[in-house]
Amino acid sequence: xxxxxxxxxxxEFVLYRNRPEWRDVTPVKxxxxxxxxxxxxYTEAYEDCYDYFRAVLxxxxxxxxxxxxxxxxxxxxxxxxxxxxYRREILKGLNKDLNEELDFxxxxxxxxxxxxxxxxxxRVLVEWLQDASKEKYLTEAVLAKDAKxxxxxxxxxxxxxxxxxxxxxxxxxxxxxxxxxxNNSAWNQRLLLHDKGGLSKNKHVTKFCEELYKSxxxxxxxxxxxxxxxxxxxxxGGGDSVYTLERAKELCSDLMTKYDTVRAKYWQYMIxxxxxxxxxxxxxxxxxxxx
Amino acid sequence: xxxxxxxxxxxxxxxxxxxxxxxxxxxxxxxxxxxxxVLKKYEDLHIKLKINPNLPExxxxxxxxxxxxxxxxxxHAYECLDxxxxxxxxxxxxxxxxxxxxxxxxxxxxxxxxxxxCQSPSGGFGGGPGQFPHLAATYSxxxxxxxxxxxxxxxxxxxxxxxxxxxxxRQPDGSFAxxxxxxxxxxxxxxxxxxxxxxxxxxxxxxxxxxxWIVSCQxxxxxxxxxxxxxxxxxxxxxxxxxxxxxxKGHLCDKQALLRWLVHRQMRxxxxxxxxxxxxxxxxxxxxxxxxxxxLYSLLAKDGNTPQDHLFDERALQxxxxxxxxxxxxxxxxxxxxxxxxxxxxxxxxxxxxxQHFLEEIRILGPSKNGIACTHPLYNIRPDIVRKALxxxxxxxxxxxxxxxxxx
Lengths: 291, 408
Description:
Chain A: One of its GO terms (cellular component) is protein farnesyltransferase complex. Chain A is mainly α and 291 residues long.
């Protein structure tokens, strides 16, 4: 164990306290107080590295060795936001080549892809560089391993919106959905590209749903969408829509007793709610006709 | 009033297996595997019931022992949480308090002093001594101190500095960064509102436009995402809803859509909750999703739609937690096959608490000694403990007023 590059070169890891270039620095122990609680039994390498990190933080040292130290510290605990924040201060202070840092954080992200700090570090670098040319590729590499990784999607949405990189997104989503049509993250991304409107007023949607229903499909998700359409239409006064209170009652009863019993109480609640909406609707009408 | 709940019929559970509609994908295959492992747990229990009709039992003594041991010592496997030590305190203290464990004053004082070491000179708390202040660390430290509830615990929070820290991470659009230079998401808004309201330093200036920003995180599915445009997610939905309720602006979100999204996160066979559509059940969402229900009930009641009953299946949730999430040696976990940790122990027991309480009623699956205390859904701390802290800090007044009296 040493730093991220240790996979490639198998050099022996030397504790910071045994490194000649750190001889001038007095390590700073963690101050947990006299009676520590939730105390972690750190490995020797962890404690050694963080003793020096605390020393550097205390003197606000901005140097190549401090930069190297933050690399080890972030490797030992990638969730230590103080380390990453301080590393960014050093990068700025030394005016480092940020493209090198992009390569470095890419390696880290590919290993630690469910971590807030590493993605945030990447985002700050992209902001500083104003160059998002490598971002779609990176998120695709992460999503290839876990197509629902929240951080990767969030980063991807941010670069698409910020740098106007919408081209090709629909095609990319299509490939993900053909791999797994149940990937809800991909569906969410698709919505980023589309307008939203009432379901019950979209003829394509209603036709498709009704045909499915008539073909004998009683998937609870289909029935739930039909209930939503009833709610929408009853709520808006309905008119001659087929999505009525009676239809909602029939669907909810089927859901309660046959297709979705775990949500029985919710479906009863939906009947009550839609009934109440319908009653309010007729009262409004009665009210307006007398005026 | 206490009501005893009974297990679901095993035949019904078997029937609720997910249908892949002859079109299996990665999501449905993973789902089927989990259902198989969960169903096996339920089948096993029905065999054990013939020997011990008192099952399923909450292994309180084991959980207490596990939690108490972690206050003192954590192995190096916890190094990844070295920047979350106030969280560790909260994750341990809260489930202990739900199970009615009282710590002695010396132990309490040790924890207070340690959290004091995590407090930053510039206000707020860091993930450990000497670390930069962070909103999540601040939230968990404040929650832990409120649970400890001693004069020493209340007074260790520098409220004036805390207010300055909150102001330093506030963004012009009303959202909050987790730390100076850190990421911005809905957790920030919730953590800031939770600590500000608990310690009596909430001002409308500090949270101008925050409600509108949060509402922009409600997605077409009905839940909330981490930031506008992203996918609805259980943890973020809890943050969004709680934050709106603290601001007394719950009416700004689409309640009906949120309710629909929430109820559909309860898994048909498992009985527990998933965090997102077509993801797997995880015991921790028992609280993140489950805890949103009582908040939503209060909003629906304002519209005259007071629910007469829980709107999720509290019996199925208790089944999942008691039968699938307990480690026999103490501690609770995500799902069968996973290992215990303090995070899951905290949120599974919090979810159990939500499932056991509906308004003033108590509904318990298994023997009545399975009962645990109620939790305040805004903060996830016992309501009596919340009230005591609110009273204490409200009597102190806002930090500004303190200064004025000091000058007179």
